[in-house]
Amino acid sequence: MVTKYFAIVWCAGALLASALWADASPDLKATVDRSLQAMGAENVKTMVISGEGADGCVGQPYNPNSAWWRRFSNKDYVRSIDLDARGWRLQRVRGEGETPGRGGCGAGPIADQTQNQVTMAGPNAPWNNQLEYILLPEGFLRVALEKNASVKSETVKGKKYTVLSFLGDNQAPVEGFIDDAGYVDKVETKIDNNVLGDIVWDAEYSDWKDFGGFKFPTHILQHQGEPKYFELTVSDVKTNVPVDLAQPARGGRGRGGERRAPEVSAEDLGGGFWLITGGYGSVVADFKDYIVVIEGPQNDMRAEQIISEAKRLVPNKPIKYVINTHAHFDHAGGLRVFVAEGAIIVTHKINKPYYEKIFKDPHTLVPDKLSQMNPQPKIKIETMTEKKVMTDGAHTIELYHVDGSTHDAGMIVAYLPKQKVLIEADEFNVGPANAPTPANINPYHTNLLANIERLHLDVERIIPIHLPGDNRKVSLAELKTAAGKN
């Protein structure tokens, strides 16, 4: 069945390639011909790449100034690609990429997980999926032909390249740099990120090797923004072997019907404080002359919801401060909207240079509220190290650095002493109600409890920014159970 599928796709792909070839400009056709010949890829329809490496979870590093996004290891990595069908199967064992494991994309240490995924990246697929195909040397050349890419010569760091360029579906240029030997050294484009704006997504290829007449790089490095996003050391490549693109079977039943976004609502915490639900949690505080918001999470839409609810609860006062627990994108994704409101960001000192840098980045591919303001307000940041108290005499918020956090180096929690409420992000993401002590204790939980005890905080209730699905009130006793201390 796979062989038959492969034969059908091969024929269809050959006809399509011939049509694309006919439409290409002479300079483009000559450049692509030379590159394919140099790589021994003229008749390659499928390839299976094996190796070891790492990939990153964008926006989730332990330190915002890290050279890597949150890093995971990729062992037994095999990517089986059908170039004509523009699809691939990725098989790997994905696990911790650092010792100790640090950063987001999981609340606690990540165990090795065997993955088997099929992705299709045809013309109707999301653009970022298509880019995963285009960021292959062979995929780039094929799409460059299809798009009738322009051809120019360019010298970069003293090295001469033939550069093929075309406009991507997101209206950002896609460029491929082909060296004098005919090898594709680099493919580069830009994509939108709601926190960073227009960021580079590139793939660099080096250490080319002959695999039975087919030349392929043995080192691949990708960036999204400045940090590393993907790295692979290639040990073997096989070409023109059958590739099975049938989706893996999935256990369980999918949920039927359309899932609606939760409604925004407010829970009165007493004393001029409210918990905003309907997404990531946020707390609104009614200070004497202004509003303080604890957490500006997710994205522009969620931030607008929180701001609207804050103004409804506390009319005729400006939002002066937004407290940021940490710099991970799902917890900082709404900060730009708060800055547009004129709010001052309160965060750990480690984040100040990072925020000052990224708030200057352009947002032209998908302009947001802040980028459309003329003039744009200047970002204002107040920092803390181990403790900061915000009060107007009647309302008090205490901020503490989480000592020993392996989720984020600049993690802070907020404590409301009158309400005896602790507001935290990611250090205790609660599970089902009345869950027993787990067999394997999450060190996040023991560390948070140790910080509460170290700081002598009188906590009756914990509000996780990742609110429990049943909207229950989470007690300190629940954390003690999760940490094995009951």
Give an account of the 3D structure:
The chain is α+β, with helices and mostly antiparallel strands. The chain has 2 domains: 2-239, outer membrane lipoprotein receptor (LolB), chain A; 265-482, Metallo-beta-lactamase, Chain A, CATH 3.60.15.10. The protein is 21% helix and 35% strand. The chain has 10 helices and 24 strands. Helix 2 packs antiparallel against helix 4 (137-146). The longest helix has 22 residues, at 2-23. The radius of gyration is 26 Å and the shape is elongated. The model is unreliable at 1-20 and 253-258 (pLDDT under 50).
Please render the helix and strand layout as text:
Blueprint: H1 2-23, H2 26-39, E1 46-57, E2 70-82, E3 87-96, E4 113-120, H3 127-134, H4 137-146, E5 150-156, E6 159-167, E7 173-178, E8 184-193, E9 197-211, E10 214-224, E11 228-239, E12 265-268, E13 273-277, E14 282-286, E15 291-294, H5 300-313, E16 319-323, H6 329-332, H7 335-340, E17 344-348, H8 352-358, E18 381-384, E19 387-391, E20 396-401, E21 412-416, E22 421-424, H9 443-454, E23 461-464, E24 474-475, H10 476-482
Parallel strand pairs: 15-16, 16-17, 17-18, 22-23
Antiparallel strand pairs: 1-2, 1-11, 2-3, 3-4, 5-6, 6-7, 7-8, 8-9, 9-10, 10-11, 12-13, 13-14, 14-15, 19-20, 20-21, 21-22, 23-24
